[in-house]
């Protein structure tokens, strides 16, 4: 546990981004680092999301760091899709190996971060009232870490236990013999419901919007398989880095609308059997053409009707209202089949919304569903939410909340105009949640580390995204999104799950491979689009023109 009054860099968050940022900036750049983490240990998302059935939906062998060969050779994954406990153990293993914890103050929440223009320093104040000044700030707060609890009337009067999936008790919850209601059927609900149904006496699922989910086909990874993977790790990582989503993908076989129907069907069958989100990658036109999208969506609906015995339930859990993939595709183990269990009921809260939470349970259409435990799988204030709660104030007293009144704006998802020397790992406008987060995190942190080295070499103390470059980047992010079906759907990608949140498609949908190249070019051009303040109005690339690209 550490606490310094002044450092070179403050890193906020000790998830995968914070661990790597702390390691690189401290051990490669030679900067002093103070980390802050509101949890009691490392792990980020995986520290908080401990609900039954929590698992990663990127394959474990690539949902892991690639920067250190010792780490990837020493660690052995046991399953194709790692469970939350295994991923958390992995985060702890890496933190131990790199001595990360010694740079962090845990159980310490950031209350505000204020830029002192005169001193050229960030002043970070934490919930205990202490302050730390730093030249730079790196936010590593994750994209899905601000839990969203809808304003249900009467929730505080519920006599039973209430848990949000995103802040599940560390000691676990004994659900044996209990009656449980689950609100929410996004990824978290879809993972939790089958696991809860195996423990609880009875589960009532309150579904507002059914989601598309594909089978995970999880399995153990054998010793031989893992040793083969370790032998080919360097090449595998290289390949994965050059894919649009940073995952192991089977390339599309063509456009669904151009292939013979029997080939389309055969490919969907193959991918359904193979399991995992690569199902969505079967064709080139699924995410850009309604008719193509419908082919894949119809296929999933057909599989639901095959699996779910009660036709009424099958109909109710079949998504109809939006194109497949425009809400994040879910990956499940026995989700649809769980509705064949006698102890699972489904309540449609689309046609009749939840009226209130009574003392004994949720009330829908005048009926109180009596339960002992209420599970809120109701999602997150995604991407911008975790940043906005840091109380960030930049130049001229501009708060991040004001700067983002119309939605999260940044240059490359990495830096925000008006906020010098502050870098956002996987911020709005970066590929982030459309990719394997660890691959995106490594790319961002490598880039930030290289940039700070270049600045150091040139004796430049301040850097900031220019407002013009930011506007251009946001226009590009929007233009790319407009070529897809994403913006049509009210999803958390669009901020639509949070009342009053501006509706903008937040991630960059042009692919991590393209994005990586753009970032490389920006650096090679002397950090084009960034201003070095102290020389306000001077484009960084004019100053850095002679710095070799890293
Ligand atoms: P999501 O995907 O945002 O899902 C939240 C769910 O909660 C979704 O089904 C919502 O229905 C439902 N919800 C939210 N508010 C209400 C109210 N008031 N009444 C009924 N139902 C409600 O969050 P997850 O945690 O599952 O997943 C987030 C990401 O984390 C996931 O994509 C992975 O990347 C990891 P709605 O769809 O809004 O009608």
Automatic annotation (TrEMBL):
Q: Which Gene3D superfamilies match?
A: FAD/NAD(P)-binding domain
Record keywords: NADP included?
Answer: yes
Q: Does the keyword Flavoprotein apply?
A: yes
Per its UniProt record, the required cofactor names are: FAD
Q: Name one GO molecular function term.
A: oxidoreductase activity, acting on paired donors, with incorporation or reduction of molecular oxygen, NAD(P)H as one donor, and incorporation of one atom of oxygen
InterPro entries from the UniProt entry: FAD-binding_Monooxygenases, FAD/NAD-bd_sf, FAD/NAD-binding_dom
Q: Tell me which species this is from.
A: Corynebacterium hylobatis
Instruction: Give UniProt keywords alphabetically.
Output: FAD, Flavoprotein, Monooxygenase, NADP, Oxidoreductase
Q: Name one Pfam family in it.
A: Pyr_redox_2
UniProt similarity note = Belongs to the FAD-binding monooxygenase family.
Give the protein name, as stated in the record: NAD(P)/FAD-dependent oxidoreductase
Residue ranges occupied by any FAD/NAD(P)-binding domain in the UniProt entry: 8-213
Judging by the UniProt lineage, the source's domain of life is Bacteria
